[in-house]
Amino acid sequence: MKKYAYNEITLTQYIFLINGMQVGTGVLSLPRVLAEKAGTDGWIAILIGGLLSTIAGIFIVKTSQRYPDDTLYDILIRLFGKIVGKGIVVIYTIYFIFYSGIVLVNAMLYLKGWLLPKTPDYIIIFLFAIPTFFVARNGIHIIGRYNELVFYMTFWIALFFLIPLRESSTWLHFFPLLKDGWGSVLKAVPTTVFTFLGFDIAFFLYPFLQKKQYAVHGIVIANILSTLFYLFTTLICFAYFSPDSITEFNQPVLNLLKVIEFRFLERFDMVLLAIYLMVVSKAWIPCIYCAVFCSSQLRGKQDHNSDVIVLLLFIIGFIFWKHPTWNESEAWQQAISNAGLALTYMAPVILWIYSWVYEKYHQGGIR
């Protein structure tokens, strides 16, 4: 009997869970950040970032394939022992707690800045926490269904990005290519780290995947979907805004949608922002699940309901005490990007090499 038969997920849910973790609030400011680093050549950095995330994701799957029924917690305990293994799990728990908190903070700041300026920030987070609890408490199978449903309900949003192109846009902004050389493009690649974070959820998803032989295909498809989405929105922003003016907007994607008007509705960007919150929830809900899954495993418990409640109350309390600003959010985002560079990009490669040496060592007669 399979260890996680009750919580199994399909390949489609596996893809949308990874893609959902990646496509969050980062895309709203990504064109501006890339333009500051590499001008209109910043879109090339997205391709490089997508390639790097795909390679790191493949290493995650290859490591998991050696232990098909083990989650990240089980793998770390197996390879490093209880003390060191649990210490690393604690690091991952803290990382996922702060990552989910930053995504929630960003979503709150966008909603407060564009829709609910008079509403206290902790009230907005509390409202986010209610549906989050009911989804996250039910396990990865339900979260996978939720992510799949939201994807089908919201993928049409990308079509509205084409409307502003009819009024004012020019592809001359992109020429000449590599106007500042490859150096500026390579400097912009690290800025894509935060937008591609999240594929490390594959460590947690692999034991639940029904058709594990397609795990590599799934993580490649998920990264391609994320890369194409970021590339699509960035290219449209670069075509609509001039290379100089795009850096004046904190969230150029929202400013782009602001020009969309219909006879029956003027501020269509408000509607899209409200709907896009469901897309962002596909990032923070699985991330909260990863955090509480690690914490419950550390406590030797299977039920993580209480962990979800404690984590959400902690985030609400922190917002009530701190009242974060945009500048603080960007600083935290940079910090989590640095941590993600180590835990999400470098650690899978190191873990794969270590597990390979570990298996060779034990197959040599130690067992």
Automatic annotation (TrEMBL):
Bilayer topology: Multi-pass membrane protein
Transmembrane segments: 12-30, 42-62, 83-110, 122-140, 149-165, 185-206, 218-241, 271-294, 306-323, 335-357
Alphabetized Gene3D superfamilies for the sequence: Amino acid/polyamine transporter I
Keyword presence, Transmembrane: yes
Superkingdom, taxonomy of origin: Bacteria
Subcellular location: Membrane
Principal localisation: membrane
Electron transport is among the record's keywords: no
Keywords, sorted A to Z: Germination, Membrane, Transmembrane, Transmembrane helix, Transport
Stated family: Belongs to the amino acid-polyamine-organocation (APC) superfamily. Spore germination protein (SGP) (TC 2.A.3.9) family.
NCBIfam families for the chain: 2A0309
Name of the protein: Endospore germination permease
Source species: Bacillus yunxiaonensis
Lineage: Bacteria, Bacillati, Bacillota, Bacilli, Bacillales
